[in-house]
Design goal:
By secondary structure, the chain is mostly helical. Helix content is about 65%, strand content about 0%.
Length: about 250
């Protein structure tokens, strides 16, 4: 009854007091709805509103900032699986669109991949020493047995070529190991000489080559292959020298 009496009255002050600030709530709700309406406006509409004097420059910047944050936090989801997914117009659509998720198997080549680290020759040779100590000798014996059973000429030639290649690999590895052992022994002797008081000595390349030839000669002599190697070398040198021998002229009567 009191509210109705006050509302029917003509005094605006009594009306405002009787409502207990309801007008302020209405005005505040109206301002909030106005702010929401402004946030939904485009940049062109906000610019026109600012030119008309209904919006300050600072308020316009604030509204644009809120719009950007709202757009950034917006999640694009489909309301139904049969509907297409809504995409943002701020980012261009990729040319190649992935429709089906495909799991890609990544392969890694340890020769060219940085994850493998730097090459350590000594460690590498120790890890793969079984190739020359076990696998290649077993393959050589298997090729020998297969070569004895083969009857076709073409098959024998192919097996003989494979056997020669395997034997050459084994021989090269043995020679390399002997050379490395000899070089390690030379370095050890130099270090012991430096510890005994000798100055640091750097060997010349020609001297290294001479000592390498001496080591090779002694190795061939110990294994019994010296005569064979020397005969082959002499034959090759004779063929080279034969090119410079003048041909005899035919004598005419």
């Amino acid at each position: 009854m009191e509210k109705e009496a006050v509302r029917s009255g003509s005094d605006p002050e009594e009306f405002s007091l009787s409502e207990d600030g309801s007008d302020e709530e209405a005005s505040s709700s109206g301002s909030e709805s106005g702010e929401d309406d402004k946030e939904s406006l485009t940049f062109e509409q906000l610019e026109a509103l600012r030119r008309d004097g209904g919006l300050s420059h600072q308020a316009m910047k604030s509204l644009l900032r809120k719009q950007k944050e709202k757009e950034k936090n917006r999640s694009f989801k489909r309301e139904n699986k049969n509907r297409p997914m809504e995409m943002s117009s701020k980012r261009p659509v990729p040319r190649l669109r992935e429709v089906v998720q495909v799991t890609k198997k990544e392969t890694r080549d340890p020769r060219f991949d940085s994850l493998s680290g730097a090459l350590q020759p000594d460690r590498f040779r120790k890890q793969y020493a079984f190739l020359y100590d076990e696998q290649l000798p077993a393959e050589r014996e298997e090729l020998k047995a297969t070569l004895q059973k083969a009857k076709a000429v073409d098959k024998k030639k192919e097996l003989q070529a494979q056997l020669t290649r395997v034997q050459q690999q084994i021989q090269e590895e043995r020679s390399r190991r002997r050379k490395e052992a000899w070089e390690a022994e030379q370095k050890k002797n130099e270090r012991e000489a430096v510890k005994a008081g000798k100055g640091v000595f750097f060997q010349k390349r020609s001297e290294k080559k001479r000592q390498e030839l001496i080591r090779r000669y002694q190795e061939l002599k110990a294994t019994g292959h010296l005569a064979k190697v020397m005969a082959k070398r002499q034959k090759r040198n004779a063929a080279k020298d034969h090119r410079y021998v003048p041909s005899t002229r035919r004598q005419t009567d």
